[in-house]
Inverse folding.
């Protein structure tokens, strides 16, 4: 395979990457909120392609989206940058089997994560995506078994601020960026109490859910971590993990190859 454009439309950001064979040449993000028109996204994509691919033609484009109203807009924005139509990820073209009540409801980002984790780590494996929502996706022997979904780190803070009279809004990245020592579990200010609850609460919830899944399934799962808050959250997990912020993009590449 030559050059491939991969686009992951998430609830917080649209992440775009370009691969040559299996090597990720670069990536950039656009906020999902305040959606724009086709021309805006086309300009962003063309600028990125000019910087990363130069004059080399693209072999294809693949899109994962959990924001339905943006899927067609992004597909139209990249139409014509390759010889074929953009491929959109769903449960039918991933190569996975789904032991779910409604496979069509599964987020395409979770599907891509599962494909990449299986390729990198083998079976059985669980993917924890610390994004807008924190999701756990469990795969064994090529079968997507299910998982769990809980509010993401940022959503926890936003809910506390909106639902109370006095608790402040907390910018978790801004508050913790550059800290030399780890965040303490015992908060000494209201802000640090909130941060403790957000970080330790998320890490603890993931650990507890994984223990329950392993007891129900009768096996131990390897864990892959990804998502915007992954590098922060995994520091407070006790189990071993494989951290890859680009896991979703790599899964999109693998799914494209299966459908090429």
């Amino acid at each position: 395979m030559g050059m491939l454009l991969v686009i992951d439309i998430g609830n917080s950001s649209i992440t775009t990457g370009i691969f040559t064979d299996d090597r990720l040449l670069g990536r950039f993000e656009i906020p999902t909120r305040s959606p724009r028109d086709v021309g805006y996204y086309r300009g962003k994509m063309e600028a990125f392609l000019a910087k990363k691919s130069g004059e080399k033609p693209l072999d294809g484009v693949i899109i994962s989206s959990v924001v339905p109203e943006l899927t067609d807009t992004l597909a139209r924005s990249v139409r014509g940058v390759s010889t074929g139509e953009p491929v959109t990820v769903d449960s039918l073209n991933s190569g996975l089997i789904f032991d779910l009540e409604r496979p069509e409801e599964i987020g395409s980002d979770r599907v891509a994560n599962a494909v990449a984790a299986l390729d990198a780590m083998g079976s059985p494996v669980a993917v924890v995506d610390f994004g807008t929502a924190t999701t756990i996706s469990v795969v064994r022997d090529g079968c997507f078994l299910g998982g769990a979904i809980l509010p993401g780190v940022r959503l926890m803070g936003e809910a506390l601020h909106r639902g109370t009279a006095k608790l402040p809004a907390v910018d978790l990245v801004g508050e913790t960026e550059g800290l030399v020592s780890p965040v303490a579990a015992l908060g000494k200010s209201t802000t640090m109490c909130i941060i403790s609850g957000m970080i330790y609460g998320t890490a603890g919830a993931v650990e507890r859910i994984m223990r329950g899944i392993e007891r129900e399934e009768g096996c131990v799962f390897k864990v892959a971590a990804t998502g915007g808050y992954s590098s922060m959250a995994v520091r407070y997990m006790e189990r071993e993990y494989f951290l890859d912020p680009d896991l979703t993009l790599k899964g999109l590449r693998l799914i494209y190859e299966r459908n090429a």
Observations:
- Helices lie at 38-52, 68-78, 108-121, 153-163, 172-176, 190-217, 230-233, 247-259.
- The mean pLDDT is 91.
- The first strand starts at residue 3 and ends at 9.
